[in-house]
Amino acid sequence: MEVEQEIAVAAAAHDYSVWGLLMQADPVVKGVIVLLVLASVACWAIIFEKIVRVNRLKGGIRRLAKARSSRDAGGLSREVLEAGEAELEADFDDSPAERRYRVETALRHALKSEIQKVEVGLPFLATVGSAAPFVGLFGTVWGIVNSFTAIATQKDTSLAVVAPGIAEALIVTAIGLAAAIPAVVAYNQISVALGRAFAKGNDAIIEIARDLTEDETEVAPQTKRARGDNVEPLRAGKPS
User: Fold this and answer.
1) DSSP code string of 14-52
2) Fewest Cβ atoms closer than 10 Å to its Cβ: which of 36, 60, 80, 141?
3) The whole model's pTM is what?
């Protein structure tokens, strides 16, 4: 009878609110919760930063599709166009097709380097999205172990003895999922957005490389005619 009264008093003194359960949790469970909360905060910071940078990247690619010279461009489009123009001015004895390939390659590498700058932080989102549920599961298992330990210590299987540990375990599971789900969704959305941005930029690069190399090939025939290389040879019997 006295044991039952002690259990009832302990259950009444126990705070079953979410905050109360967190404050009364085992130190290991508290450590897991703090780790998951910090990971979640870092993920949200990365998500908001990537939203801004992806939108800026899309705007730069739209300007790149309209610009044809680095003089009338800025930001990403200027960096990409300068790389192509520098490759075009390089002194190589190659055919027009080879020159166009070199320009396209330089433009594509410049665009890829700009996209890689935006990709910084995405591996962290992927890591949190895949690991956070298992970290939460660790806290869940630890809470259940504490519940069974309480049963063995107090030799009582009533809900008042088991409930605190199980409640702590479920809270840790919820926090792990709350950290993992936004990270996974954001990682997938940002990866798809970057892939589409690179595809649009690649289409613009093909057009830019064609325009730049066509401008060069249009000058060559004029120079050739000026030197007299295309003068029609005299035929027999034709007066000079």
Assistant:
1) S--SHHHHHHTS-HHHHHHHHHHHHHHHHHHHHHHHHHH
2) 141
3) 0.72
Q: Are 122 and 190 in contact (CB under 8 A)?
A: yes
H helices, E strands: number in the chain:
7, 0
Question: Is 31 contained in some domain?
Answer: yes
Could you tell me the mean pLDDT of each successive run of 10 residues in the chain, 240 residues long? 46 58 74 91 94 89 74 72 76 73 84 87 92 90 79 68 74 90 94 90 83 60 40 42
DSSP string, 64-122: HHH--SGGG--THHHHHHHHHHHHHTS-----HHHHHHHHHHHHHHHHHHHHHHHTTTH
Please state, in angstroms and rounded to a whole number, the distance separating the CA atoms of residues 59 and 82. Answer: 18
How many separate domains does the chain show? 1
